[in-house]
Design a protein that fits this description.
single chain, alpha/beta, Inosine-uridine Nucleoside N-ribohydrolase, Chain A, 12 helices, 9 strands, globular, binds calcium ion
């Protein structure tokens, strides 16, 4: 696979912020036989842009992940931002409270992601793993059009494509015109939709072992447990779903998912997604099934490797 760049709306560390982007980053950091992560672009979605950047930088600190972090769009172009945080807290103006006692040490890039790509060698190619609203991705395609030829493929988490009881999925709902731009770009796109990720589940017992890994394990454990408590109190749900990590594991291990080619559509007002037709030749593919047990095994293994590496004392010279 080519170099990887991820576009995320990270929220670990924010009370009421989903932790799935953070777990995905930890999983990617744990790929010791593969060092392809070249950059992280942050988009507003689960939380505001400033909180998302703070969370991402802090996670990079914890994981010892030395990659550039680019602040992206603070809101969609045509409508105000409605964060996942405001939906979870039931209050559009609730503060995004930081639950950790430390703040990130590293700083975000001053250059935009698009400018950075523009500064790379023209032969630079990358895979874009997008697990937030598509605002940044559409911005890249519209304002830095030559980048289109540098993106080999996009893998994303979002939408709800099959089934009678479909609703607009959060990532698609935040910025539907941006999704439409991506759908129409012609870039190969693999989508891991909500109807797949709702089958995933992480339970408190699965994360107890993280407490063996010092500060990084403690922070991920506490942040994840806080999100699980939130899900329990507002939805009566045990544990939490692993939406974004499924997209990352499916990218690195395509053998765990089955996809079908589709011609997708999106309602530009509501963000509700649909399948106009199935088409084996379409560049857009959507996951229809996956091996849940294998997914969870690979995810927890990768996260464990990342935590062990990050918590290991530095060797003295
Ligand atoms: Ca996300």
């Amino acid at each position: 696979m080519s170099t990887l760049i991820i576009d995320v709306d990270t929220a670990l560390g924010i009370e009421g912020g989903d932790i799935d982007d953070a777990l995905m980053i930890a999983y990617l950091a744990g790929q010791s036989n593969w060092a392809g992560l070249a950059g992280i672009s942050v988009v507003a979605g689960n939380v505001s842009l400033s909180s998302g950047v703070k969370s991402t930088l802090y996670i990079c600190d914890l994981l010892g992940l030395d990659v550039p972090v680019f602040p992206g769009a603070a809101a969609p172009a045509d409508r105000p931002l409605k964060t996942g945080h405001s939906l979870v807290m039931g209050n559009a103006n609730s503060d995004e409270k930081w639950i950790f006692s430390h703040n990130p040490v590293r700083e975000p890039e001053t250059m935009s992601f698009g400018e950075w790509v523009g500064h790379q060698d023209p032969s630079f190619r990358f895979t874009l793993l997008a697990t937030g609203p598509m605002t940044n991705v559409a911005d890249l395609l519209l304002n830095h059009p030559s980048c289109k030829y540098q993106i080999e493929q996009i893998v994303s988490m979002g939408g709800w494509f099959f089934g009678e009881e479909r609703h607009p999925e959060f990532n698609m709902m935040v910025d539907p015109p941006a999704v439409s731009t991506v759908f129409q770009s012609g870039i190969p796109l693999t989508i891991v939709p909500l109807e797949m990720t709702l089958k995933t589940c992480l339970m408190p017992d699965d994360i107890v072992q993280w407490l063996n890994y010092g500060e990084v394990g403690q922070a991920f454990h506490d942040g994840t447990l806080s999100w699980m408590s939130q899900m329990k109190s507002i939805r009566g749900q045990e544990g939490c779903h692993l939406h974004d990590p499924l997209a990352a594991v499916a990218l690195l291990h395509p053998e765990i998912i089955e996809t079908v080619g589709i011609i997708p559509s999106i309602d530009l007002k509501t963000g509700k997604t649909d399948v106009l037709s199935e088409d084996p030749h379409s560049v857009v593919r959507v996951a229809r099934s996956f091996d849940n047990a294998k997914f969870q095994e690979l995810l927890l293994k990768g996260i464990g490797v990342a935590f062990e590496t990050a918590s290991r004392p530095a060797l003295l010279e």
